[in-house]
Amino acid sequence: MADQDTSKDAAELLKAFSHPIRLAILQELVAGPKCVTDMEDLLPARQANISQHLAILRYARLVDYAQDGALRCYYLCRPNLVRDLLTLVGRDEPVLRRTPEEIKTDKERLAKAKLSSYSNAVAPARPKLKPRAKVRR
Q1: What is the pLDDT of residues 10-58, one digit of tens each?
Q2: Under CATH, what is the fold of the domain 8-90?
Q3: Listed residue (60, 83, 63) closest to 74, CA to CA
Q4: Given Cys at both, which of 23, 45, 59, 88 links 49, Cβ 3.0 to 4.6 Å?
Q5: What pTM does this model have?
Q6: Please, are residues 32 and 64 in contact by the beta-carbon 8 Å criterion?
């Protein structure tokens, strides 16, 4: 059950990153706290739309805000996580192509490894040695 909870939490977190406007908001907040009106000047979105995206980011516990009179200034509340994920998604990794033969070879190797692991796990226990007879002197 804990694995399902962890997977669900991870999926929710990744969903928060899965929109171009939210990514842009996070990139802006990496530079420092900003109010919605500041972000409206920097992003191709209206204030209402930015506020909706900020609500999703708050729900994912990636951003929070401090109230300054009528202004809400947003900041990253998990800056290291946001920086790391933005760096990860920004990497230019090559796309690997595999041939059917390579895939078949990998599947066979995996099957052998599983069989070996299984046979080691269910190997019969070693028989206990009989105690040595006592030697009389």
Answers
A1: 998 999 999 999 999 999 999 999 999 999 999 999 999 999 999 999 9
A2: Arc Repressor Mutant, subunit A (1.10.10)
A3: 63
A4: 45
A5: 0.71
A6: no
